[in-house]
Design goal:
Number of strands: 10
Strand content: 5-15%
Shape: globular
Oligomer: single chain
C-alpha cells in the first residue's frame, strides 16, 4: 500500500532511476516506522532487532536491484503498441494529442489512415497520412502495427468495412474511438459520443451483492472513522470557533442518487454569508472567503469528515461522484450531454474524478469531471472503490487538488 501511495506501481509515467530509488527509500522508511509502532503496540509479535534490521536492509537492496533489472528488460523487449488512427479530422487529431499528453510509453502513433487519395502524403501533427485504400495493409505489415483506432467524425456511408476486416483477419486489433480513449485516459469521451455506445457497451451494472457489500462497508468504515477522528474533529471545531464567528458545521442542500435532495454537512471553512452578495459560485484558487483555519482543513480534507454522518444515513457513500448543488445541476445538465447520468449512483466523499482531476470552477472542468464520473459508473466494482480510496490517501498526503 505504501509503495502504491509513493507511485511505485505507476507504468504511465517515465520516472528516472534516481527518483525510483528515492521513492523506494522513502517507502521503506515509512514501512519501518509503521512496523516499529505496530511492535510497540503488540510486543509479543516483535521480531528480534537484528532480524528486523537485516530484513529491511536485504529487502531494500533486492527490490532496488529488481527495479533496475525490470527497467532494463522492459527497455529491451519494447512492449510499445504501434497504432494507426483511421481518420483525418479533428477527432483523429484529438486522439493523437491525448496519446502524447498521457505520456504513456505503451502507445506510439505511427500515422493516420485517410480515406481519400488527396489526403495521401499530407501530415497531421507531423505524422504522415497513409492512403487507406491502397497502402493500409502494406503499412500494417511493414510497421508491425498492433492496433487501428477508428476515429471517423462521420460514418454514414463511408465506414471502411472491408479494409478494417482484412486488417483484423491479419491479427491487428481494431478498436473504436470511445473504447480506446477510455482505456488510454481512464475517462469516457462525451464529445460526439453515440447514445448507442452507452446502451450496448458492457458495464454500467451494479449487482445486488455489490450494493449489499458496499452498504455494509460504508456503515462499518464511517462508524470507525467517526470514532477514530473524534479527537481531530473536536480540535477542528474549537479552532473554527476561535478563528471566525459563525456555526462550526456548514450545512448545504446537495443532489443525491436519482436526483433526491439531501443536506450535506461539512466543517465550515469560509466566512459566514460568503455567498450573500454573489449567489452560488464555485470556490476559486486563493479564495478570499476562506478562513485561516479553512485553508488548513481544506488542504488536509478534514472539512469533509462530518460527511461520514451522511454516509451513515445512507445519503452518500465513501466512493462516488462528488455531490453537487441543485443550482449547478440545473445549469450543467442544460449545457453538458449525459450530465444527469452521474446521478444514477450515490454521491461519495471521494471519487474517481476527485483523485484523477483537480478541483474545477468552470464548465470545461465540469465536463472533465463528468467524463471521469461516467468511467467510474461504467466500471463500478469493489476493486475500483479500493483503488480510489488508496489514491485518495495519496492525494491527501501530496495535497493535490485542494481549494
Amino acid at each position: 500500500m505504501i509503495f502504491f501511495i509513493n507511485d511505485l506501481y505507476s507504468t504511465a509515467d517515465q520516472i528516472s532511476l534516481s527518483n525510483i530509488i528515492l521513492r523506494i527509500i522513502i517507502a521503506f522508511s515509512t514501512c519501518s516506522l509503521a512496523l516499529a509502532l505496530f511492535y510497540l503496540a503488540f510486543p509479543s509479535l516483535e521480531l528480534s532487532k537484528g532480524l528486523f534490521l537485516y530484513t529491511i536492509l536485504i529487502s531494500l537492496i533486492l527490490i532496488t536491484f529488481w527495479r533496475v533489472v525490470y527497467n532494463w528488460i522492459m527497455g529491451k523487449i519494447n512492449p510499445t503498441q504501434r497504432i494507426i488512427i483511421y481518420g483525418t479530422g479533428s477527432t483523429a487529431g484529438m486522439i493523437a494529442t491525448a496519446v502524447a499528453e498521457e505520456g504513456n510509453p505503451k502507445y506510439h502513433v505511427e500515422g493516420f489512415a485517410g480515406e481519400y487519395i488527396e489526403g495521401h502524403g499530407r501530415k497531421i501533427m507531423g505524422l504522415k497520412i497513409f492512403n487507406a485504400q491502397k497502402d493500409l495493409l502494406k503499412v500494417v505489415a511493414e510497421k508491425k502495427i498492433n492496433e487501428i483506432v477508428v476515429a471517423l467524425s462521420q460514418r454514414r456511408g463511408i465506414f471502411p468495412v472491408n479494409i478494417l476486416l482484412n486488417c483484423k483477419l491479419r491479427g491487428v486489433q481494431v478498436i473504436d474511438l470511445p473504447d480506446f480513449y477510455e482505456k488510454l485516459t481512464g475517462k469516457i469521451l462525451i464529445k460526439d459520443l453515440r447514445p448507442s455506445w452507452l446502451i450496448f457497451s458492457p458495464g454500467f451494472k451494479q449487482t445486488s451483492a455489490y450494493k449489499v457489500v458496499k452498504r455494509v462497508s460504508d456503515i462499518m468504515f464511517s462508524t470507525l472513522a467517526l470514532i477514530l477522528a473524534a479527537p481531530i474533529m473536536l480540535i477542528t471545531a474549537i479552532l473554527i470557533k476561535l478563528d471566525s464567528p459563525g456555526q462550526v458545521l456548514f450545512k448545504q442542500q446537495r443532489v443525491g442518487q436519482y436526483g433526491r435532495p439531501f443536506i450535506l454537512m461539512k466543517f465550515r471553512s469560509m466566512q459566514c454569508g460568503a455567498e450573500e452578495e454573489t449567489g452560488p459560485v464555485w470556490a476559486q484558487e486563493n479564495d478570499c472567503r476562506i478562513t485561516r483555519v479553512g485553508k488548513i482543513i481544506r488542504k488536509l480534507r478534514i472539512d469533509e469528515l462530518p460527511q461520514m454522518i451522511n454516509v451513515l444515513k445512507g445519503e452518500m457513500s465513501f466512493v462516488g461522484p462528488r455531490p453537487e448543488r441543485p443550482y449547478f445541476i440545473d445549469k450543467l445538465q442544460q449545457r453538458i450531454p449525459y450530465y444527469t447520468q452521474r446521478l444514477t449512483v450515490k454521491p461519495g466523499i471521494t471519487g474517481w474524478a476527485a483523485v484523477k482531476f483537480q478541483y474545477s470552477s468552470n464548465i470545461e472542468g465540469a465536463v472533465e469531471k463528468l467524463q471521469y464520473d461516467l468511467y467510474y459508473i461504467k466500471n463500478i466494482s469493489l476493486f475500483l472503490d479500493l483503488l480510489i480510496i488508496l489514491k485518495t490517501i495519496q492525494v491527501i498526503i501530496t495535497g493535490k487538488g485542494s481549494r
